[in-house]
Write a structure and sequence with these properties.
The complex is a heterotrimer of chains A (222), B (261) and C (474). Chain A has two domains: 36 residues, no CATH class; 178 residues, NagB/RpiA/CoA transferase-like (Rossmann fold, 3-Layer(aba) Sandwich), CATH 3.40.50. Chain A contains five helices and twelve strands. In chain A, 50% of the residues are buried. The chains are: A alpha/beta (222), B alpha/beta (261), C alpha/beta (474).
Chain lengths: 222, 261, 474
């Protein structure tokens, strides 16, 4: 008997189920197709302007830095100043995201920009974000040609360009948006709440365990 | 009962540990109940609620003792227990033990509905807002696990204690953490139990209170035994003794009359 | 990993006399409890979410076969592979054969309790592969060849000095006289060493906190990001998960996730919650080329339809052990195998048998704190009691205990005799005590009096005194 038959047969025997139980099948199918919402905390069910405010508060609480910008044109200066302020190298690995194409990197010639997935030596990455979830100040990063997942984890500093209109109130809102815009779920969806951290040595929280030590969010839009 | 103005007839479930170790608690319960207008009876057919068997995995004996207890307390308006642990056994576990028994499950449910832990009965059922008692001292209160988590007893004893003349309350930071008694646990795993009661005793000392109160004799014997072994001066009593103003009737738990307290 | 669960009393004694461990337990425990409390209080819906979480898992368990089928369908539809493994042996073989199929040498691993359960590291090592734990805590204990002591904080029993000593002994490629005092330095060193391991790895193995039937996604929750490097950098990503980890939809996953981080670490959300669906897509620039899900049973489905079914709701947050006074006293190693604390007291007898694990369900005061905080509302004390019932029925209860119980029950069934005997016993104790308020020693009561006095009875039973009062007409 295959492992599959043993396991599924075992479950059916234990629960006294048959395979041709149509009513049960219908219930399951219905739930999967309709994917009803569960109890969604009221905290995130607020008007868009408040969502941005909540997102900012919660992300900062999770040790992100958040900088509001009026437009993509301001990104190069903001990035250059951020890196200079921390004495970090001005070399960026930027996601090949068409949504970031409008950033005029040349406006800051001190910045060295290359695009593509992260390599081990890359110290700073810049990516977009599929959404921001206000409820917990979380970034929703969806993998795809415009967003290699390695950019979220390998560099020490991750800078995320998040458009204000990509902020949603709740996780459910973010998933609905993903279903509507992408159809299929991409290979990787990272929900990122703050920089990497560990409490494994004497239960004291330290940032930058394996992933980025710094997570800087540029919240763009008027 | 309020409408009829009849005095409620209360059956006192004494509990093994009160019966054997600390009759004063039983009499304190009787006094509190009588002061609150109840007629108290103590059925002689009662022995043990069966929890030791239940927790040892001997379901047959536990069920048998549950039936006997149910029969012994038939007909009372209320059954009152000066213990959250035995009270929890009757209120929460009897219906579970007898579930599916057409004859006994309804009787178990009926008894569970009529059964109350002493302090909860006074406050939640009878609406007693204060007691006429006096006790000089700073008391700290340990919430015994069953009373707290099975019966929701937390605010009630504190509310009544605040009305006792002379009492100051110093809260125990980990009042909700088990003292390590756990019935047979304390003798099956004495080292672990000891660590738990050690921690409890240290916390009691840190409050600066001169008296530790709780609502369960198991916890009280355990904590009192540890405190006296450590030579602590803290007095240990069942909360009913203080509420009934009967602390003059007996020395604190683990003390001889000569040692006073 | 060879269980020492049968030796719980000795393990516990050793832990209790380990002063360093006791210091760690005292401080760590309070932190977990406070953080969880604050997180739960901050979310007004938290208690109702616990009900919803419980209901989701109950629904899944009642339809587990169908949800597993739909999960498989979705994984395969995305180009992934599903391996059904009834036993630990099957799962080890499946993983090894995947590794061999790509000629793997180095295998990086995210934290997985199930990997511990099936002993995958030893199996891979025996086959000539190099498994590398990448969760910092797991990495440390792997270097020390120790089992985890907590399901979410595996190295919580160690001090930073222990970690420094271990690193100095193992990371011999680094200057021996380097300063290793601060946790930041230790973490940076581990990060550097593990980065090289990530680069070398051919296969990455992660666990799964959840599997989503709707999309065929597996979900991991971490704070370090190691699980993400583990699954993103190598060519092959293997997910090792047990059957009960399934939830129907993304929405259901969110309900469980809202409970998980708050219950585990008291965070609003863990740093990384990652949904992985199939292998990398043709247009992707990174990600694994192969995606395998090893679905393990190893005794889980045998719990369905029994009084232990509800334990399959567990989401491995660790709240039960964080709040357990017994765990707090002895730590995780005393439990002798993979799952410590209250969840271990229910799971280990199921996985190892009662003969090996009978102590665990007994070593509980039934204080109920685990159930009070369990995000899935698993009635853990009730299940420990069920194990005691099985033990009693199978006559595994120690004979002295059985005899004592039988004698006591004989009296308890005969009220008149009981009250008489109680009167005699109390009188005898009183005579023995000679008017003292307590006993420092007492025959047959060593377990009690070794550590504490036994308060003496007042001298007469309540029943005797009450009968007297009745006779005297008050």
């Amino acid at each position: 008997m295959s492992g599959r038959d043993a396991i599924l047969g075992g479950i059916r025997a234990a629960l006294g189920r048959k395979t041709d139980d149509l009513a049960r099948r219908a219930t399951v199918e219905e739930r999967l197709t309709r994917h009803p919402r569960g109890l969604v905390p009221a905290r995130g069910q607020i008007p868009p302007a408040e969502q941005v405010e909540l997102f900012t508060t919660m992300a900062r609480e999770a040790a992100c830095t958040v900088q509001p910008l009026a437009a993509l044109e301001e990104v190069p200066a903001a990035v250059a100043d951020y890196l200079a302020g921390l004495n970090l190298p001005a070399e960026l690995r930027v996601a090949p995201d068409p949504g970031l194409d409008a950033i005029p990197w040349h406006a800051r010639p001190t910045l060295t920009v290359s695009r593509g997935p992260a390599r081990d030596a890359d110290a700073v990455s810049v990516t977009g974000a599929f959404a921001g979830v206000a409820e917990t100040g979380t970034l929703m990063l969806a993998s795809g040609p415009g967003h290699p997942t390695t950019l979220n984890f390998l560099p020490d500093t991750h800078i995320v360009v998040l458009r204000r209109d990509r902020v949603t109130g709740t996780y459910e809102d973010a998933w609905d948006r993903l279903r509507a815009e992408l159809g299929d779920v991409p290979r990787t969806v990272n929900f990122v709440t703050g920089p990497s951290r560990t409490g494994d040595i004497e239960q004291t929280i330290q940032l930058g365990a394996h992933g980025p030590r710094r997570l800087h969010i540029l919240l763009v839009g008027g | 009962m309020v409408e009829t103005r009849a005095r409620p007839r209360v059956g006192l479930f004494v509990t093994c540990l009160v019966d054997l170790f600390r009759p004063t608690v039983g009499f304190a319960a009787v006094k509190l109940l009588e002061d609150a207008g109840c007629v108290v009876e103590v059925p002689a057919a009662q022995t043990c609620c069966g929890q030791p068997a239940f927790n040892a995995g001997d379901r047959a004996t536990a069920t048998d003792l549950a039936r006997r207890t149910i029969a012994a307390f038939e007909g009372f308006d209320h059954v009152v227990v000066p213990s959250g642990s035995c009270g929890g056994q009757i209120k929460r576990h009897y219906p579970e033990l007898l579930a599916g028994d057409p004859l006994w499950e309804p009787r178990a449910r009926d008894l569970a509905g009529r059964t109350h832990e002493l302090v909860s009965f006074l406050t939640d059922v009878l609406g007693v807002a204060g007691v006429d008692a006096r006790y000089e001292g700073t008391v700290t209160y340990h919430d015994s696990c069953s009373g707290l988590r099975e019966l929701g007893i937390k605010a009630q004893p504190r509310r009544l204690l605040r009305g006792v003349d002379g009492v100051r309350i110093a809260e125990l930071p980990s009042a909700e953490v088990c003292c390590g008694f756990g019935g047979t646990f304390c003798v099956k795993y004495p080292d672990v139990s000891n660590r738990m009661v050690e921690a409890k005793a240290a916390e009691v000392a840190a409050t600066g209170a001169d008296t530790l109160l709780a609502g369960d004799m198991g916890c009280l014997l355990n904590i009192a035994g540890k405190l006296s072994r450590q030579g602590s001066a803290v007095r240990v009593r069942h909360v009913a003794e203080v509420l009934a103003g009967m602390t003059g009737d007996a020395p604190p738990i683990g003390r001889s009359p000569g040692e006073g307290g | 990993m060879h269980p020492t669960t049968h030796a719980f009393p000795e393990n516990a004694r050793r832990a209790l006399s380990d002063e360093r461990l006791q210091r760690v337990l005292a401080t760590a425990g309070i932190g977990f409890i406070e953080r969880r409390r604050k997180a739960a209080e901050r979310l007004p819906e938290f208690e109702e979410l616990r009900d919803r979480g419980r209901d989701i898992k109950n629904h899944v368990l009642e339809n587990l076969d169908l949800y597993l089928e739909r999960f498989e369908e979705a994984v395969v539809g995305q180009g992934g592979h599903v391996h059904w493994c009834a036993t630990a042996v099957d799962a080890r073989d499946a993983i090894l054969s995947i590794c061999r199929s790509v000629d793997a040498k180095t295998v990086t691993k995210g934290k997985s309790m199930i990997a511990e359960e099936i002993g995958i590291n030893d199996h891979l090592e025996a086959a000539g592969l190099t498994p590398v734990e990448t969760d910092l805590g797991e990495y440390i204990i792997q270097l020390r060849k120790e089992p985890p002591s907590h399901i979410i904080a595996p190295a919580m029993h160690l001090s930073k000095k222990d970690v420094a000593d271990t690193f100095r002994a193992v990371h011999t490629e680094l200057p021996p006289d380097r300063v290793l005092e601060e946790p930041t330095v230790l973490i940076a060193e581990a990060r550097g060493v593990l980065r090289r391991r990530f680069q070398q790895a051919d296969v990455g193995i992660t666990g799964a906190n959840l599997m989503v039937a709707e999309t065929g996604s597996t979900v991991i929750v971490t704070n370090e990001g190691n699980g993400d490097l583990t699954q993103t950098l190598p060519r092959v990503h293997i997910v090792l998960a047990t059957v009960e980890k399934i939830v129907p939809t993304l929405e259901d996953a969110q309900t469980v996730l809202r409970l998980l981080a708050r219950s585990a670490t008291g965070q609003e959300a863990s740093a990384y919650t990652t949904f992985s669906t199939g292998p990398r897509r043709p247009e992707d620039a990174d990600g694994p080329e192969q995606f395998h899900v090893v679905i393990l049973d190893n005794g889980r489905t045998a719990l369905l339809g029994t009084e232990f079914q509800e334990v399959l709701r567990c989401i491995r947050c660790g709240a039960c052990m964080n709040h357990c006074p017994v765990y707090g006293a002895v730590g995780g190693h005393a439990y002798g195998w993979v799952y410590p604390g209250p969840i271990g007291a229910v799971m280990q007898p199921a996985l190892l048998g009662l003969a090996e694990a009978r102590h665990l369900p007994n070593a509980s005061t039934f204080c109920g704190r685990c159930e009070a905080v369990c995000p899935m509302r698993i009635p853990l004390p009730k299940m420990m009691r069920h194990w005691r019932e099985t033990e009693f029925a199978e006559r595994l209860t120690p004979p002295a205990m059985r005899r004592g119980l039988a004698l006591w029950a004989w009296f308890a069934r005969r009220p008149a005799l009981y009250h008489h005997a109680a009167g005699l016993a109390v009188r005898a104790l009183r005579l023995l005590g000679g008017g003292k308020g307590r006993f420092a020693r007492l025959p047959l009561a060593n377990g009690w009096t070794a550590h504490r006095d036994l308060p003496a009875p007042q001298g007469r039973t309540f029943q005797q005194l009450w009968a007297e009062r009745q006779r005297n007409g008050r």
